[in-house]
Amino acid sequence: MASTKDERSLGEMFAELSRETRTLVQQELQLAKTELTEKASKMGKGVGLLVGGGLIAYGGLLSIIAAMVLILIVIGLPPWAAALVGGVLVAGIGYLLIRSGLAALKPQELTPRKTIDTLKEDAQWLKAQVK
């Protein structure tokens, strides 16, 4: 096995190490931005579910309660009891939809794990290069 001697000066090696480190840091920053963008997108979908669930629950609350109240009044319940039964039923459905949206919004771990892992690897690589 033939060994080759590096003919570069110490200054040239540090300059190359500096360039590589700068490139590495730029790539890590780009990875962090990408990772955080993905996590924000997931949170946005959860907010959409929450808003959509709330709107559907509200629309359902208005229309179904009105229909149920009228049916219950026709059956013979007093108007106040009919309104109470209809309201409780539709509010329960709305609650389930809102709960689904909140479950999608559970605190996402915003820590860019991939970036941290690669930074650790980069630190190990940098230590190896300096030795």
Report what the structure shows:
This protein is mainly α. The protein is 84% helix and 0% strand. It contains three helices and no strands. It has helices at residues 10-75, 79-104, 113-130. It is rod-shaped and about 100 Å long.
Helix-strand layout with pairing:
Elements: H1 10-75, H2 79-104, H3 113-130
Helix pairs in contact: 1-2, 1-3
Defining key terms:
single chain; 131 residues; mainly alpha; 3 helices
Quick summary:
With 131 residues, the chain is an all-alpha fold.
Overall strand count: 0
Number of discrete helical segments: 3
Range of strand content = under 5%
Average pLDDT, to the nearest integer? Answer: 81
- Low-pLDDT runs of 5+ residues are none
How much helix is in the residues? over 70%
Shape summary: rod-shaped
The topology string of helices and strands comes to HHH
Structural class: mainly alpha
Major sheet details: none
Return Rg in Å.
31 Å
